[in-house]
Amino acid sequence: MKRLIPTLLLVIICIGGFWYASSKDFFKESKAPVASLVKVNKDEVASFSIKAEDSEIELQRKDGKWTMNKPSPLPLNDYGADGWVESFNALSKDKTVDANAADLAQFGLEKPSQQFKVSLNNGTSYTISVGAPVAIKGFSYAMLSGSPEVFQLSDSQTKPLAMTQLDFMEKSPVTLEYDQVRSLSVAWKGEKWAITKTDADKKSFESDWKLDDKVVKGTDIGQYLNRLKFLSTEQPARPSSGINMSSPELRVEVKSVDASQKEITTVYLGKVEQDNVWFVKEGAEWAYALPLDSIQELANKELPQPPGTEAPPASPIPAAPMELPTK
Q1: Do 111 and 220 sit in the same domain of this protein?
Q2: Region entry Disordered: which residue ranges (predicted)?
Q3: Pick from 30, 55, 124, 129: CA 20 to 30 A from residue 240's CA?
Q4: Domain boundaries, position 249
């Protein structure tokens, strides 16, 4: 028995070593890193376009600023265009289907369902064409311009590129720095209220605020400012020059200070059109169609009561005691 002990120890050591090596993937072949189909420097991108069967979106970049040319100009957000270029750079093929395809129609690439094109300042351009779906769900046939290769491309990679016009648009017309706000007034259909900071040296949530003759705690002021800051639309903006702002039903005035403590007054006007209010910052280029409900909420100076704080129901008035008949 003693002679078997060294052998058993050796077997146990070998089993332990094999388990450790397996857990560290020592026996697995390392995969080569996935190469991008195209790699462009976003600072050298002059334009990009998104083509579908019945639509086209084109954005151009000049002096570091993006503008939308097709289908029509819109105010753009700060992240959509740069994020799109990053998604384009991240494209990688799943596998080659045909290295030298002669018949593109069988792959749906003779008339692609989608095309994503990037053009650089030096005139170079790259186009990814997406055709018919392959038999494996979640993949489609695709090609890169200048190459006869047809490859398989994951739909999850092209989805971030298939953006709509509204995906690029800035949907919020108001920018606020809460600690710089000194007062807010809202006039809506003849009713008006104003809230004013009482201590300019304190942060917005530390100072008390005055609403008419009522004191509002700083912890509640965010609810008023949020209603204005988070106004948003899901409709294309229009040039403000095309909106008739005579006799507006809404007027919002924000008084704030800049970094040098200089007071700035910003005015927003609103004009009702059916279930929307066209909302325009005075002097701004764009008007935004905001839901009527969100404007009515903004105009309501009362804050919602927290659950459980409703006033108790009034006690019923006790009935008068019944008089007994006298004999």
Answers
A1: no
A2: 299-327
A3: 55
A4: 178-299
Find the CATH number of the domain harbouring 193.
Answer: 2.60.40
Give per-residue pLDDT as tens, 249-303.
999 999 999 988 899 999 999 999 999 999 999 999 999 999 999 999 999 988 8
Round to whole Å and give the CA distance between 293 and 311.
26
Angle between helices 292-299 and 218-229 (to 10 degrees): 150
Q: In what order do the strands lie in the sheet with 191-197?
A: 214-216, 209-211, 191-197, 181-188, 250-257, 263-273, 276-281, 286-291, 238-239
Which position has the token pair 């009935």?
319
Last residue of a domain, one of 113, 139, 168: 168
In the numeric block, the tokens 């807010």 are attached to 184
- What's the confidence (pLDDT) of residue 302? 87
Same domain, 190 and 107: no
Q: Give residue-wise pLDDT tens across range 165-195.
A: 999 999 999 999 999 999 999 999 999 999 9
Of 68, 60, 49, the C-alpha closest to 114 is 49
- Report how far residue 103's alpha carbon sits from residue 132's, in angstroms, rounded to the nearest whole number: 13
pLDDT one-digit tens code per residue, 141-165: 999 999 999 999 999 999 999 999 9
Integer Cα distance of 276 and 280 in angstroms: 13
Same domain, 150 and 198: no
